[in-house]
């Protein structure tokens, strides 16, 4: 019987989905692969999945990413200061009707928050990587896999109303979650095991009919869209391995709950290992 200790018997494609702060759970999956001594042959990511996927493709380990995230979000004041530094507009713009004062420049955000080991170009990554964005005008999926890395990932995470769209290659690009939040379909192939990690938010039963704030509603609507699209994709053609991650009660912007998110994701490691064992057995 094949085991996960035989990496030459199969190729793994890793797909990390969209889901905001819930996507920090992706790190547990990366740690499971590290513990097995396995490296994906290719990685695809969308939104938060693109941020973490690119860092993993750059050669950082799951543990290194865990330590980076925990250290970063431990200092709330520093994070808020950096976010303010990433803003495109000013509060005065709202009064003048000139724009959105909280809109973030995604490229600036990545420059401030990514580990320094993440390179500037796709070609410098150690694992082939694809970031998924959406063409705002053509209403089509855009797979970005060469050239400058930062603007590509910034486009993948450009949630409308929160992160500024990115002009790249003659296109205006926004959050890939608007069209393909778990981009595994193009990777399905014989001789390959596609491991897709869904961190979209499931439906919840509120304890009370509380009206969400403006920003919460904006991000919440994006989460609803993400979950709906993922469900339809899976119903049509599921990946070889589907891992559903993300702690209950975590909102799209709850990054300051990083420690709790990562703690809740610990059981995912064993789930990933068991799922790989089953996938190998099924292939004889």
Q: Compute the number of strand runs.
A: 8
Overall average residue pLDDT:
89
Radius of gyration: 18 Å
Shape: globular
N-end to C-end Cα span:
7 Å
The residue fraction in helices comes out at 25-40%
What does this structure look like?
With 284 residues, the chain is α/β, with parallel strands linked by helices. It is built from 10 helices and 8 strands. Strands 1, 2, 3, 4, 5, 6, 7 and 8 form an 8-stranded mixed β-sheet that branches.
Q: What's the topology here?
A:
Elements: E1 11-16, H1 26-36, E2 42-46, H2 48-57, H3 62-74, H4 76-85, H5 91-96, H6 106-113, E3 129-135, E4 140-144, H7 149-156, E5 166-168, E6 171-175, E7 192-198, H8 214-236, E8 241-244, H9 258-264, H10 267-282
Short description:
The protein is of the alpha/beta class. The chain contains 10 helices and 8 strands.
What tags apply to this protein structure?
284 residues, alpha/beta, eight-stranded mixed sheet, 8 strands
């Amino acid at each position: 019987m094949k085991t996960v200790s035989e990496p030459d018997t199969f190729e793994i494609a890793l797909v990390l989905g969209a889901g905001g702060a819930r996507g920090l759970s992706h790190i547990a999956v990366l740690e499971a692969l590290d513990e097995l001594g396995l490296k994906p042959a290719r990685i695809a990511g969308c939104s938060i999945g693109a941020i973490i996927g690119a860092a993993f493709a750059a050669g950082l380990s799951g543990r290194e990413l865990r330590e980076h995230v925990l250290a970063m979000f431990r200092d709330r004041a520093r994070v808020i200061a950096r976010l303010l530094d990433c803003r495109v507009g000013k509060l005065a713009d709202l009064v003048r009707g000139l724009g959105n004062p909280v809109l973030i420049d995604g490229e600036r955000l990545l420059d401030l928050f990514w580990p320094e080991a993440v390179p500037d170009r796709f070609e410098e990554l150690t694992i082939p990587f694809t970031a998924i964005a959406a063409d705002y005008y053509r209403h089509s999926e855009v797979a970005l896999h060469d050239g400058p890395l930062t603007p590509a990932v910034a486009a993948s995470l450009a949630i409308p109303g929160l992160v500024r769209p990115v002009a790249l290659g003659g296109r205006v690009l926004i959050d890939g979650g608007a069209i393909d939040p778990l981009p595994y379909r193009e990777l399905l192939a014989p001789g390959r095991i596609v491991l897709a990690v869904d961190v979209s938010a499931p439906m919840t039963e509120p304890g009370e009919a509380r009206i969400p704030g403006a920003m919460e509603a904006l991000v919440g609507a994006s989460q609803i869209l993400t979950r709906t699209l993922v469900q339809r994709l899976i119903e049509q053609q599921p990946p070889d391995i589907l891992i559903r991650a993300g702690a209950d009660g975590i909102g799209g912007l709850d990054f300051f709950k990083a420690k709790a998110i990562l703690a809740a994701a610990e059981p995912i490691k064993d789930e990933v290992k068991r799922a790989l064992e089953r996938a190998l057995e099924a292939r004889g």
